[in-house]
Amino acid sequence: MGMSWDVTDAYKTQKELEEARCKAQVADKLKNSFLANMNHEIRTPLNAIVGFSKLVADASEKSDRDEYARIIEFNSGLLLSMFDEVLDLSALESGTLTLQCQAVKLSDLCRHLFEKYVLMTNSGVKLVLDNVDESLIVMNDWSRISQVLASLLNNAVKFTSAGSIHFGFTTHHNIIKFYVKDTGIGIPTHLVATIFKSFEKVDPFIQGSGLGLTLCRLLVQKMGGQIWVRSKENEGSIFYFTLPVTE
Known about the structure:
This is histidine kinase. This protein is an alpha+beta fold.
């Protein structure tokens, strides 16, 4: 009987070690993928900044200087955004990120994002802020709710070349459900289940760290909600996330 238990324990230990080894291999693969991707994503805007910084100093025409300065500013913004994402991810995974709660009027937050993204939307696409509750005020972190919605809107703008993008929120009992619906390229079936994991990208040729949706998931969970997507390739996507009503 004792020997039987020893064999069972040994088998269990061996299985646990094998599972730990597999997880370590997956983590190592993700780390290498992240480093390779970030190496490329950082070098691209950095090369533009260095190159156009040299050109702007030698440019004699004001129009040329203005254009080079615009390119430098744009690529500097890309770099800062990527570093912010990495820092946020680190803080969320270590549990050190704190929410700065305040009274948030959700209709104002959505309108602020509309005014920003309507200028970025492709000419053949209509951005629509649907009718929302103008009176709803909650206690939450304005910047983090805005960060999640902005990330979803940014993706919708990036992957939608025709049709429309609708966004807004609805309430049911004590739950707020936000949504961003587009008529873009959609998400391949094999990626839908993993799209919120780190470093997954719908299109590897589109610039970005691949951390955006992972940050959305972690931030929404931090705020007490859930996030999910409904999508069909070539038919568009609808991203949803919920937050509790904390008045």
